[in-house]
Design a protein that fits this description.
alpha/beta, Nucleotidyltransferase, domain 5, 7-stranded mixed sheet, 5-stranded mixed sheet, 13 helices, 39% helix, 21% strand, carbohydrate metabolism, ATP binding, ATP-binding
Length: 381
């Protein structure tokens, strides 16, 4: 805890490593940045450490076992095995990444460790991320900030999305005209709306890649719809699409958040693989468009641009459909010079520094929390 006090006293930027394993469950994204947790931001390096097929299978079992959890500390059965896997894999990822850096790059002052979400139920105030932050800190000999979502929920928030404060920083650095929006398309899709006065509104708008990935893995034993080829070869089943969009979640006002398995995609199960993927891809796109439309109605203004980040930015079917459906400019994060695949890891490095300095991580407009709050547990140092 002395290290935390030391970091909080510093106003100068520090070197922070962010570790993010998202709802796609494909591996660990790593990002080293220099930041003060406020306006200073310099990306230093980033990397990725994939999960093996067996490891993905174990995480899938843990997600199934965690469904309906009410005690977020429960690690019975497969959850204990999965937590050990997540912790060890993050340790290995960090060691390999840090050893690969140029010898002139310093070791990080702080690590932001998200962990692996296996269950998220905001209605009951429960969010479960696997991963042992203390073990990570001990092995890597570095202070670690983890469990970043819980304090938001304890103060009436949804516990998600967590990244909007970082999106606002990027919008400022890129000098984007406001209002503008970011959409992160991971396992789940979430929108950050940055208003004309820099005010933040954010929410999970619907599915991202998870439904598509799960179907392709189940039907073809592949990890994803590479290059959007299946979606572009298939035909959308509009009856199935209407049924999916009829979910009452889409009528709820923001802020709101989702578990990765919130939607039942069995309606496309009888379709051919290409048509099923085309339909699920359209579902992802339509719900992003619906979320933006709701924001336009709420704010009375249209975004100047939409920045797409996460794995979805590499899917031409998604990008093409968004460009065809929206009046605003649609830009991939990579095309702006941002490191789109690393943004969430960068964000959790940034949030770890904010946490260490007692700065708020979430806001009423981003999670529904009663007031801006910090969060996270810090160990080590």
């Amino acid at each position: 805890m002395q290290k935390k006090a030391h970091l909080m006293e510093l106003e100068a930027p520090v070197l922070a490593l962010g570790l993010m394993s998202g709802t796609s469950c494909d591996g660990v994204d790593l990002a080293l940045i220099r930041t003060d947790g406020e306006d200073a931001f310099e990306p230093v390096a980033n990397g990725f450490h994939a999960y093996s097929a067996d490891q993905k299978a174990l995480l899938g079992q843990a997600i199934k076992a965690a469904k309906g959890m009410e005690d977020r500390t429960d690690r019975s059965g497969v959850l204990a095995e999965a937590e050990a896997l997540v912790t060890q894999h993050h340790i290995e990822a960090a060691q390999v990444f840090l050893d690969s850096l140029d010898e002139n790059v310093s070791r990080p002052d702080l690590i932001g460790f998200h962990g692996q979400t296996v269950w998220h139920d905001p209605a009951k105030g429960v969010t479960v991320q696997l991963g042992d932050g203390e073990a990570l800190s001990n092995i890597l000999n570095c202070p670690v900030v983890f469990d970043l979502r819980a304090n938001d929920m304890e103060h009436g928030g949804e516990g998600a999305p967590m990244v909007p404060a970082f999106h606002r920083l990027l919008a400022a650095k890129q000098e984007l005209l406001r209002p503008c929006a970011f959409v992160n398309i991971g396992g789940v899709s979430n929108i950050t709306w940055i208003g004309s006065e820099d005010e933040l509104t954010a929410f999970d708008c619907g599915p991202g890649n998870a439904l598509i990935d799960d179907l392709v893995r189940r039907k073809l034993n592949k990890d994803m719809d590479e290059g959007g080829r299946l979606a572009m070869a298939g035909q959308v089943d509009f009856l199935a699409l209407v049924g999916l969009i009829g979910n009452p979640y889409f009528q709820k006002r923001a802020p709101k958040s989702l578990d990765r398995n919130a939607f039942d995609a069995s309606v496309v199960e009888s379709l051919g693989v290409e048509d099923a993927v085309a339909t699920l891809t359209a579902f992802t796109v339509e719900t992003i468009c619906l979320g933006l439309e709701q924001m336009e109605q709420l704010k009375g203004e249209q975004p100047t641009c939409l920045v797409v980040c996460g794995g979805g930015q590499h899917n031409p079917a998604i990008i093409g459909q968004l460009q065809g459906a929206l009046d605003c400019e649609v830009r991939r994060a990579d095309d702006l010079g941002l490191q789109g695949d690393a943004l969430e890891a960068q964000a959790f490095a940034y949030l770890a520094v904010r946490s260490s300095r007692g700065l708020p991580l979430t806001f009423p407009g981003t999670t529904g929390v009663h007031e801006p709050v910090s969060g996270g547990v810090m160990v080590g140092g």
